[in-house]
């Protein structure tokens, strides 16, 4: 099952936007099927890293290799953005079908319906996204990201704007999909407890490079708070102003 | 519409009583209930014009308004009936309608196409936008003498003027619509593997459509205005021509009839646009029926 995942490797990634560089020579390897969480302070470059890994942006230096590094890897990469980014003029089902890519195939609609059912919104299929709540829109965006059975799912703080309960429900949906489909997942988040609840491994970005790389050895399904020690260790590191990587 | 109680009525009604019972029990609320019903009625917009016509008729019948200044609505209606029976009115209306539609089709299509081209292609925008912005500031009606010299007073002159008039609102609003499509949606489409054509058809075009409709509405206003002026100055048929001829014979009733017909045609065009909007922009909360 985990053979469906796509490994990702970044070598010497650098990227700046005019000011001081956001990423300076970052190296990272994510094995196939791993659930990696990237945490860091605001402005630490974690979203920039995700955009580079997803091919949404080009690095100034260094390179990203996804899977075999060919075009097929592009089609097998899906991104969940900070906002749901649904098309207001397409039905909920139509929005999920966007995730099928350029060639949906004859069973496209059935697959879109199935994906929508998995997130519990089958009965809203023909509605406009306008009428959905924030959490429901996120679920549609998740169905759109998963409908093509991607090998790599990049999540750019997609749950940041949701209330606490909806968030926990979404985390459950993401984890269930990951366990079922075996894709490689990369979650960028500022919420350390979310990272501890979901990830196999947590990477902390600081000063444009990997400052901390921790395995999360907790059995699944995880209970809330089971990784409290790990969580406070990461938070201490995040809040400690003197700890800077030698660069 | 009649069967459903308005919000005000429902609040006024005691929990066990029906609508009519509560209306009788609370006479103070009936005014508010009627206002609520009126606010939801689709025909409420016709109340004011109807009242104006009624007042006008009364003033004319009482002799306050002289026929030479403003003929009574009944006289205008009579003139309309007579011209319809003689076949003159349908002929002129048909001619004017065809001119308007042809001009809108030609000018609107060119404006839409150039708006698309300049919204999608930087090269096209660089090459043509400066020229178009310069030309936009020339009132197209200022070209009437030149157009008459070039095309005479035949159909071409009217077509060119109307097309020129509707071109700019459609062009400017199409361009604006395309430029303001949410770049985040475009990025999403790219990242989800949409081809350039799919991006255009599924994201750029629907995103620009509300603005295109704004342009179309402006264009309809300009279309009638241009047609009236063109037909009044240089034409041998059409409603404007009919009005000018009536002036020569001091037929104020026909002049007023022509004005009323322009108003009715304008309202008709607006209605068609509205129903198109409701159909094409059903997803948009502002256009829901």
TL;DR of this structure?
The complex is a heterodimer of chains A (247) and B (289). Helices cover 33% and strands 22% of the residues of chain A.
Give the overall shape of chain B, derived from the CA principal axes. flat
Encode the helix/strand succession of chain B as letters: HHHHHHHHHHHHH
User: Which architecture of the largest domain in chain B per CATH?
Assistant: Orthogonal Bundle
CATH class of the largest domain in chain B: Mainly Alpha
Specify the CATH architecture of the largest domain in chain A. 3-Layer(aba) Sandwich
Topology overview:
The complex is a heterodimer of chains A (247) and B (289).
Chain A: E1 8-15, E2 23-30, E3 35-40, H1 46-53, E4 61-66, H2 71-75, E5 77-80, H3 92-98, H4 108-118, H5 134-146, E6 152-156, H6 164-181, E7 184-188, H7 192-198, E8 201-206, E9 209-215, H8 228-239
Helix pairs in contact in A: 3-4, 3-5, 4-5, 5-6
Chain B: H1 7-12, H2 19-25, H3 30-40, H4 47-61, H5 73-86, H6 88-120, H7 122-136, H8 144-151, H9 155-179, H10 183-191, H11 196-233, H12 239-248, H13 252-280
Family (chain A): Belongs to the ABC transporter superfamily.
Organism (chain A): Lichenibacterium ramalinae
Protein name (chain A): ATP-binding cassette domain-containing protein
């Amino acid at each position: 099952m985990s053979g469906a995942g796509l490994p990702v490797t970044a070598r010497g990634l650098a990227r700046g936007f005019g000011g001081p560089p956001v990423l300076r020579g970052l190296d990272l390897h994510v094995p196939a099927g791993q659930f990696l969480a990237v945490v860091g302070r605001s402005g630490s470059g974690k979203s920039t890293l995700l955009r580079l890994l997803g091919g949404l942006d080009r690095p100034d230096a260094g390179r990203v290799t996804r899977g075999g590094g060919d075009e097929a890897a592009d089609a097998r990469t899906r991104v969940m953005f900070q906002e749901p980014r649904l098309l207001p003029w397409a039905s909920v089902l139509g929005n999920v079908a966007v995730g099928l890519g350029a060639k949906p195939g004859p069973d496209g609609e059935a697959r879109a319906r199935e994906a929508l059912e998995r997130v519990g919104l089958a009965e809203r299929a023909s509605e406009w996204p306008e009428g959905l709540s924030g959490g429901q829109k996120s679920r549609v965006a998740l169905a759109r990201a998963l409908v093509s059975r991607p090998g790599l799912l990049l999540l750019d703080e997609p749950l940041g704007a949701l209330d606490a309960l909806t968030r926990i429900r979404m985390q459950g949906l993401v984890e269930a999909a990951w366990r079922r489909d075996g894709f490689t997942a990369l979650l960028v988040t500022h919420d350390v407890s979310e990272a501890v609840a979901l990830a196999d491994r947590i990477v902390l970005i600081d000063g444009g490079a990997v400052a901390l790389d921790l395995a999360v050895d907790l059995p699944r399904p995880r209970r809330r708070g089971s990784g409290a020690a790990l969580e406070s260790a990461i938070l201490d590191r995040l809040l400690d102003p003197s700890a800077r990587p030698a660069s | 519409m009649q069967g459903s109680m308005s919000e005000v009525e429902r609040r006024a009604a005691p929990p066990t009583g029906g609508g009519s019972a509560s209306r009788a029990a609370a006479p103070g609320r009936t005014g508010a209930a009627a206002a609520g019903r009126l606010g939801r009625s689709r025909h409420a917009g016709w109340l004011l014009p109807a009242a104006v016509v009624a007042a006008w008729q009364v003033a004319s019948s009482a002799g306050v308004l002289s026929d030479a200044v403003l003929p009574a609505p009944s006289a205008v209606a009579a003139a309309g009936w007579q011209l319809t029976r003689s076949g003159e009115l349908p002929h002129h209306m048909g001619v004017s309608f065809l001119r308007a539609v042809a001009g809108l089709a030609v000018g609107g299509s060119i404006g839409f196409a150039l708006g698309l081209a300049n919204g999608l292609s930087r090269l096209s925008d660089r090459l043509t936008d400066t020229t178009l912005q310069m030309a936009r500031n020339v009132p197209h009606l200022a070209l009437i003498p030149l157009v008459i010299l070039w095309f005479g007073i035949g159909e071409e002159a009217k077509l060119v003027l109307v097309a020129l008039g509707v071109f700019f609102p459609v062009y400017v609003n199409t361009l604006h619509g395309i430029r303001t499509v949410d770049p985040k949606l475009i990025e999403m489409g790219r990242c989800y593997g949409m081809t350039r054509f799919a991006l255009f058809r599924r994201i750029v075009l629907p995103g620009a459509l509300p603005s295109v409709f704004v342009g179309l509405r402006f264009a309809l206003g300009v279309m009638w205005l241009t047609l009236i002026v063109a037909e009044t100055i240089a034409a041998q048929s059409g409603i404007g021509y009919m009005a000018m001829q009536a002036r020569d014979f001091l037929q104020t009733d026909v002049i007023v009839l022509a004005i009323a017909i322009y108003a009715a045609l304008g309202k008709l065009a607006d209605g068609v646009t509205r129903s198109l909007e409701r159909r094409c922009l059903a997803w948009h909360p502002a256009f829901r029926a």
